[in-house]
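stage 2 :: seqdesign
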C-alpha cells in the first residue's frame, strides 16, 4: 500500500503493514526495509510519555519495570562499548551521551578518563543524572554549550526519534572532525521482527518510532554525513522450541530487568539456553538473523 508519510530514512512511499499494537500501526518500507509508525504520535504524546515517572519505574509495556535494577545487566555492554571507543580514541577527550537516563554510563565513562556531558529528555532523570555526576544535564541537544565532542553515544535512543536522519545530522555537526558517533538500536532484521512480530518486544509504540535493519542504519548514517561506518550485531536471541520458550520466559524477563537472583547462576543458565537455541536454529531456521541489537561506530570525516 501507499501512505502519505514517507519513510523517515529513504523517503520511499511503498510500504507493507507489519503489526498493529496499542492502536498504532507499524509499516515496513519496501525500499530500505526501515520499520516505522504511521502516523507518528504527536509531540505532546511523546512529552507525556517521557515525563511520566512510570516510564523508568513501573511501565513494563512501553518503558522499564525498574531502570536502576537494570544497571547490572547494562554494565557489561557499557564496559565493552567503552573499550571500542578507547581503541579508536585512546587519548579520550570530551564525550556526550544522548539519552543518558540516570547517568550510569556517563559515570563509567568518566571513570575511564572521559570528560562527560549528557542529554536526557526526562526532566526527572536529568536531575538524577546531574546529582549523580555533579554536572549540568540538559534536556535537549539545543541547550548544549557550543562545544565539539570527541565522541557522542546513543544507547537505545535512535528508535525513539521521529526524524532520525535529521537528529544524526545535527549530532554529526557536534563532533570534531575525526570524532566518532557510537550507537545501539534494535535490529529490525531479527527473526522475531520478520517471522513472529507479535513476540518482538521492540515493536513498542508509542516509544519506538523507527526501527532499523543493518542496511537502513548504514543509509541513515551516510545521509548524516558520517564516514567511515562500521555496523555489527550483538545480543544473540535465537528461536527456541515452543516448550523451551515458554519455560524460560520468566528467566529471560528477570535478566532483562535486572531482577534475576542469584544473578551469576541465572546468567549462566540463560547462556546455556541460548546455545541450545542457536543449535536448534541452525537446523530448523538456518536463514534466521538471531541478533537482537545493532551497534554502529561512525566517524565525522576530518
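stage 2 :: out
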Amino acid at each position: 500500500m501507499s501512505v502519505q508519510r514517507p519513510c523517515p530514512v529513504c523517503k520511499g512511499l511503498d510500504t507493507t503493514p507489519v503489526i498493529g499494537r496499542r492502536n498504532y500501526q507499524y509499516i515496513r518500507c519496501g525500499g530500505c526495509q526501515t520499520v516505522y509508525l504511521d502516523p507518528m504520535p504527536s509531540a505532546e504524546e511523546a512529552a507525556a510519555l517521557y515525563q511520566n515517572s512510570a516510564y523508568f519505574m513501573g511501565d513494563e509495556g512501553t518503558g522499564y519495570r525498574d531502570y536502576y535494577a537494570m544497571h547490572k545487566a547494562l554494565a557489561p555492554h557499557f564496559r565493552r562499548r567503552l573499550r571500542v571507543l578507547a581503541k579508536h580514541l585512546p587519548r579520550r577527550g570530551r564525550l556526550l551521551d544522548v539519552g543518558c537516563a540516570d547517568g550510569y554510563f556517563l559515570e563509567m565513562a568518566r571513570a575511564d578518563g572521559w570528560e562527560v556531558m549528557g542529554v536526557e529528555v526526562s526532566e526527572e532523570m536529568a536531575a538524577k543524572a546531574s546529582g549523580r555526576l555533579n554536572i549540568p544535564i540538559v534536556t535537549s541537544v539545543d541547550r548544549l554549550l557550543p562545544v565539539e565532542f570527541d565522541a557522542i553515544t546513543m544507547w537505545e535512543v535512535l528508535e525513539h526519534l521521529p526524524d532520525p536522519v535529521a537528529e544524526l545530522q545535527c549530532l554529526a555537526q557536534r563532533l570534531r572532525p575525526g570524532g566518532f558517533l557510537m550507537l545501539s538500536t534494535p535490529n529490525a532484521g531479527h527473526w522475531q521482527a520478520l517471522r513472529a512480530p507479535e513476540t518482538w518486544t521492540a515493536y513498542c509504540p508509542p516509544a519506538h518510532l523507527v526501527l532499523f535493519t543493518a542496511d537502513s542504519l548504514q543509509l541513515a548514517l551516510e545521509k548524516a554525513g558520517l564516514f567511515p561506518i562500521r555496523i555489527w550485531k550483538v545480543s544473540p536471541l535465537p528461536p527456541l522450541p515452543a516448550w523451551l520458550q515458554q519455560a524460560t520466559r520468566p528467566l529471560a524477563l528477570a535478566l532483562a530487568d535486572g531482577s534475576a537472583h542469584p544473578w551469576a547462576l541465572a546468567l549462566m543458565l540463560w547462556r546455556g539456553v541460548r546455545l541450545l537455541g542457536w543449535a536448534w536454529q541452525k537446523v530448523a531456521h538456518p536463514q534466521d538473523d538471531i541478533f537482537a541489537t545493532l551497534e554502529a561506530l561512525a566517524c565525522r570525516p576530518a
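stage 3 :: structure notes
- The longest helix spans residues 263-284.
- DSSP finds nine helices and eleven strands in the chain.
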